[in-house]
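Task card 7
Instruction: Convert sequence to structure tokens.
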Amino acid sequence: MKLLEKILIAQDFGKSSENVISSAIELAKIFESTIVPIHVLPDNVVDEKVRTILNETALAKLDETTTLMKNEGVKSDKPILMVGAPHEAIVRAAIDVNTNLILLGSGETKKGDTFRLGTTAERIIQKSEKPVFVIKESVLLNVHHILCPVDFSDASKRALKNAIIMARRFKSELTILAVCELEGSTWFTSEKDKEKENELRYKLHKEEFDAFLRDFNLIDLNWTKEIPRGNPSEKILSTISRKMIDLLIMGTAGRTGLNRMFMGSVTEKVVREVPCSFLTLKSEDVISLQLETHIKDIKQLHKTALELLEDGFYEEAKDHFKACLNINAMHVPAYKGLANLYEKLNQPEKAKIYRNNAKEIMDKIWYTKVEEEARKQRGS
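Output:
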């Protein structure tokens, strides 16, 4: 099965490229992904000889990347070399090769800059409908703690769905943050009335948050929720610092027309100043479950079922375990897998049925072996 099939990795051959490549390799190993390297040459070079040298140098460096991938045991497709504005070329290439994800560095910023995001990275986030994973310079992709802010929108639903799978695969902690914005208007007749309004607002916000989370499979996940009050962007950034977050995953609503160039004020402020690597999702998922069809081999079916169970795809895991039993009605690992699955779903009666089935088959096999051994000893 595939969860993250293809990663487009943008290289500028600058000092941060090595970290981008190592991060891409780590991600590809975790998700068994294929990497597609890309580099974009400037379109304003007039001298033909210089253009030729740049082209040859870029191709050589891209070949070095694919060789490194091969040596690391990671699949890579033919690298892409384009000419033009980097953000436009990268966004277009992501569509052409149908990648799940664009991965790039955060870009060059000057020391002391308030904004830590380069222009190219920001423009790609603005224009791309594909998810964009930005790796911070000198920050290794060593994900122990993920933060996913939600505002109960469809975009944040997509972000959380992907964050949960990421947390399972990285075996990391997940914090789900829902900031409650307080009413600061001056039209209240008294401070007491304003406090009363904000308490009611906070109570309703908590209830909506709990209802929102009920749609997600958080079983066996190391997760916590936080509901701070205040300015969303400030609370997101302070939580990242306080909890030493390694990866931020945020949804940003897809736009049309002229408005598609804007990320939304909260997302824009956060991604410009965030100190850790981050992933933004607009209208497409990073994680796209692709299952092989017509698998006949029971070992492969069972292996896939266990992977689905670990990744939280319970219905799909159930189908694969039952497919094992269709091939062999006495396949004990499938019965045990179904028992484990129903325990996770808090359905103990069904779990007991499948556990007893496994025990009965194992007992039957054991008694059959005892009888065979006895016959051998009697010489019959």
